[in-house]
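Deliverable D4.2, example record:
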Amino acid sequence: MTQNSSNKESFDQEDFRLYYQHQYDRMKELEQQRLIMTNVIVSISVLSLT
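Output generated by the structure prediction step:
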């Protein structure tokens, strides 16, 4: 019984780790997209002003 409990706990910890890793990856991707969009907007603004 304790073996099953221990295995479940380790699976739960692994699930939590994977969930948070996935969230960090999503945030990283969104920040990269934001940076690209910001660079495009700034570039277009500079080109329109010159």
